[in-house]
Amino acid sequence: MTDTTRTLCPYCGVGCGLEVSPPAQPGKAINRDSQGNPIWKVKGDRNHPSSQGMVCVKGATIAEAIDKNRLRYPMLRDSLDEPFRRVSWDEAYQCIVHRIQSVCATQGADAVCMYGSGQMQTEDYYVAQKLLKGCLGTNNFDSNSRLCMSSAVAGYVQSLGADGPPCCYEDLDLTDCAFIIGSNAAECHPIVFNRLQKHHKKNHNVVKMIVVDPRRTPTAEVADLHLAIHPGTDIDLLNGIAHLLLRWGYFDSEFVSECTANFPAFAEVISHYPPEVVASKCGVSVADLETAARYWGTSKRVLSLWSMGVNQSTEGTAKVRSIINLHLMTGQIGKPGCGPFSLTGQPNAMGGREVGGLCNLLPGYRHVQNAQDRAEVEQFWGIPAGRISPHWGRTAWEMITGLETGDVGLLWIVATNPAVSLPDVKRAQAALLRSPFTVYQDAYYPTETAAYAHLLLPAAQWGEKTGTMTNSERVVTLCQAFRPPVGEAQPDWAIIAEVGRRLGFADKFPFTNSAEVFAEYVQLTCDRPCDMTGMSHAKLAQSPLQWPCPDTWANRDSQRLYTDLRFATPDGRARFSAYHSKGLTEPPDNEYPFVLTTGRLYGHWHTQTRTGRIEKIKQMHPQPFLEIHPRDAAKLEIQENDLVEVRSRRGTVKFPAKVTKAIAPGTVFVPMHWGALWGDETEANALTHPECDPDSHQPELKACAVQLAKVVQKTKIDQTDAYPQYPHQFLPATF
Question: What is the dihedral of CA 612, 614, 620, 621, to 10 degrees?
């Protein structure tokens, strides 16, 4: 085989197109890694509309991890203190089916939970929704999007009437003011940022960039204005900008009058945020606050960009809506170059939202609490009326508390690593130890979560299965398989469908390939905001497509939503929100005087399940670190590379110090990628708390109170091995 396959990068939500070709090509040397192993060659797809051939280091090196430390066969053990033994797929299926039946009979279907991932393809998500929410009658499917984008979902729904970013990447080339808040896009969404930076540099006299972040990140380095606000003061800042826009007359009175609702309540709230008060609370100057408001007010096309720094908060939904408020009061939406644009974290978190991949959602941007939505899905699936529960299922964290109370009898984890990524992770790990039965479905072994599993199911991964993913600008790409799965691995959708058939729902899972799954799913998007009825695997094989894309449209522009200035609310009006700032759930105090914030690094992805196995990336980021301001470091007699103990009310970690003025005094930063498999006492989420937003139920992973202490006896951190030795009891007896 010498043909090139077009696919998609499986990392962040930018959704970069890739071209993959086999290691051996006629007339060329075999492409090999540093150890001499043949690897597939990866480059950017110049024809992909979203990335236009660009690719970051993660995408460029993705193929180097495809064969490393793979889970190749089903593995089973009776208890967590035993080694795994290899079993057949038939035995694995019998085990999980028996367990589900037993739990449903003794505790009810609501004792069954599945925790999925934005790494899942849309077809995987859909089959899982049909099994749990339709066939079993429990809404206990949640995904790591709960930790990532659920505040953006809630904000869009409450303000605009429906989920879905209304902008597109072309707006990066058209805006005259980019307002970036809570996003280090240069490292976390580099291809989007590179495109914006190029536009900014080319038009530096007219295009302004504002970055709001407590850290002077690579994103902030190139901004015209960096607002290093105190953590937790985002709403104060946004309301303060709104106050000045209203005072100075920078608002679109006709748009506000004709296209929005609730402006008087909003206006009353922002009257309490004069510049002197806001500047003091946020820790910025009045002059900089006024400059930000002036940039916004005088711009014709303002594009706001945000990510985890906004979403991961107990005020996440309120922050998202406060950003949207600024667009509504200035009419900056539904037009080229402007609008509120959330940058999606996971490669298919958007697809998961569309297909109902959270415990409060149903396919086609429907909601479990809406009776008509439930009835439509029940009728389509051919299940009895009332089968779909009218209540939220368990969120990711509620699955953990359900294990603590014994209310969860079976936990099925797919393509994610909660033993590292959940907040208050030591408590989460303790709960996982109490699970009566945990199924872990993943492509790699070992991972931290595998240590807590009873049954391991080998999943086909990127390049080994065909399916679709949706990126941040609503572009759907077909990710085509270019090689067979390793060992006995199978696609996630196929595993879940077979369980459904063996549970007695064979007529609900007749699929023989992922194209058939997608063809069924898109019917549920008909006449919905995310209409994809004009899509199929065959059409997507020709080119990615952007929704809305109904089969009745011909050559209609779908790049932007709300171009007619009618919104997805019952009366067609967007809704202003009126929020006062509440600040951090856990502010600093005398005992814990610092605010800890966490984030990603350019080369790594989440918990290093892939990137930790790629040599180039390991060399880029050999170890974690703690960013601390020189003023704070001096007080604690901490010097560069000193080992620092970081303690919160929940746990303790240790990091070498990185003394830098890039972090504001009183705030410290650590990367979130290092779990127990990659370092010793380096789990950032051992510190974070699980308190969450009341609407989105997204935890405040971005901020908690900590104390610091220099470790007198220095400890050298050895990162020379691929990963530390895994505890013997968690290794399988045979592969």
Answer: 10
The H or E element that residue 703 is part of is: none
Sign of CA dihedral 726, 710, 704, 408: positive
Backbone angles phi, psi at 599, to 5 degrees: -175, -170
Chain centroid, CA 233 distance in Å: 23
Mean pLDDT for all residues in the chain: 95
Contact (CB, 8 A) for 374 and 365: no
Q: What local confidence, expressed as pLDDT, does residue 31 receive?
A: 84
8 A C-beta contact, residue 279 and residue 289: yes
Residue holding tokens 């009045």? 286
Q: Rounded to an integer, what distance in angstroms lies between the CA atom of residue 44 and that of residue 1?
A: 20
Helices and strands per DSSP (H, E), number in the chain:
24, 28
Backbone angles phi, psi at 265, to 5 degrees: -65, -40
| DSSP state at residue 474 | S
φ, ψ of residue 120 to 5 degrees: the values are: -70, 145
| pTM of the full structure | 0.96
Please write down the HEC assignment for all residues of 219-230.
Answer: HHHCCCEEECCC
Q: What is the DSSP letter of 728?
A: G
Determine contact, residues 465/485, Cβ cutoff 8 Å. Answer: yes
In angstroms, the CA 691 to CA 586 distance is 9
What separation in angstroms does the CA of 549 have from each of 428, 471, 534?
A: 41, 15, 5
Pick the closest to residue 479 from 460, 464, 493, 495 (CA basis).
Answer: 464
Q: Which residues of the chain have pLDDT under 70?
A: 1-2, 553-557, 714-735
d(CA 326, CA 341) in angstroms, rounded, equals 13
Exposed / middle / buried, residue 715 (Cβ in 10 Å: 0-12, 13-18, 19+): exposed
**Helix, strand or coil, per DSSP, at residue 476:** strand
The predicted pLDDT at position 30 comes to: 87
- Round to whole Å and give the CA distance between 192 and 179: 14
Amino acid at 646: V
pLDDT at res. 728 = 37
Q: List pLDDT tens digits, range 283-317.
A: 999 999 999 999 999 999 999 999 999 999 999 99
Asked whether 148 and 346 are in contact (CB, 8 A), the reply is: yes
DSSP string, 169-229: GGGGGT-SEEEEES--HHHHSHHHHHHHHHHHHHTTTT-EEEEE-SB--HHHHT-SEEE-P
Instruction: Tell me whether residue 133 is exposed, middle or buried, using C-beta atoms within 10 angstroms of its C-beta: 0 to 12, 13 to 18, 19 or more.
Output: buried
- What are the b/e assignments for 352-373, b being 16+ CB within 10 Å? bbbbbbbbbbbbbbbbbeeeeb
Distance in angstroms (rounded) separating the CA atoms of residues 462 and 10: 7
Strands (E) in 235-321, as ranges, are 260-261, 302-306
Rounded to whole angstroms, how far apart are CA atoms 643 and 505? 56
> Could you give the maximum distance between any two Cα atoms of the chain, in Å?
72
What would the two tokens of residue 16 be? Answer: 């970069």
Query: What pLDDT, on the 0 to 100 scale, is given for residue 485?
Result: 97
Phi (first) and psi of residue 43, to 5 degrees: -145, 165
